[in-house]
Amino acid sequence: MACELNEVSAVYKYLLDKSSRKYKCPKCNKKRFVVYMDMQENKIISELVGRCDREVNCGYHYSPKLFFKNNNFEYTPLINNSYKPEKKETTFHSISLLKQSLIGNVNNNFINYLKTVFDTEKVENITRLYRIGTATFWNNATIFWQIDSQGKIRSGKMINYSKNGKRSKYVNWVHSYQLKNNLTKEFNLNQCLFGLHLINQSKKAIAIVESEKTACIMSQVFDKYIWLASGSLNNLNENKLHQIKDRKIILYPDLGPKESDNKPYNQWKKKSDYLSRKGYDIGISDLLENKATEEQKSHGYDIADYFLDVPNKTLIKNDITTENINKLLVKNGQLQNLIEVFDLEILSN
């Protein structure tokens, strides 16, 4: 185990819970609510104080400062200098557990969905690159393993998919399952970007999206980038990006309502600008913001949704004739946008 301590936790008293624990949101009633913790007392402030991770569809956020003000409590955001935060070692999953998860992939709905989009070779590339596994012990859910740049397995995120590639809203974690079933006594979670282990394989520019599914799909659609995923809109932070500070980074946030100031693009643009000032070679793509339709925005499309929303998916699965490509370009200006933005090479027979 490696000892890691977030320096911020040694200064600020109230931080969002870093574990995978979620509560019911006071506003939308979905179990997607992350509470604020009192780091000095190691307890939650209140089940009302926190942030819903349905950032666009709900947006509930009740800060500790506002909670203390509303209840006429003294607000002391910094920890006393005499406080010595406990140093917790990061826990890692075993490689044997990961290998075991690969055995049940024949029953994996996500992988079987990918076979309707790509040919067999590309699907095998995805499962090999990202080490996609199956939780045979938990409804055959897809396991997205978070493997760091040293090859250590930080976590396994479990998501159920339907046969058409639609995911369940409920997320579980391998370590949570182990703790609940007394398969392990303790697990100190310290997440990394999904796909981080791939940065050692080439010096390509790095593209970061929100969801693991999107990273997997785009790795085959546009392989001039290394595609990583933050796991959610709010999970993009400097703590996760510091290992790729010396690489060129391009952010591809999901779409959100046009009129919303809190839409994903605006949130990641602020983070991009902040990190640029700190020396990161980072930018953000406005492709979806400028080219997507209002319907696509209302459905919260990501870059993979946008690319797959092409009438003839043989463009992805097979090479086609130049004549057919030209016909598709006439019918679908969206396809032309992608060819231009990504500098795609169209192969013809």
From TrEMBL:
Residues 12-72 form the Zinc beta-ribbon finger putative domain. InterPro entries: DUF6371, Zinc_ribbon_put. Residues 108-255 form the DUF6371 domain. Signal peptide: none annotated. This is DNA primase.
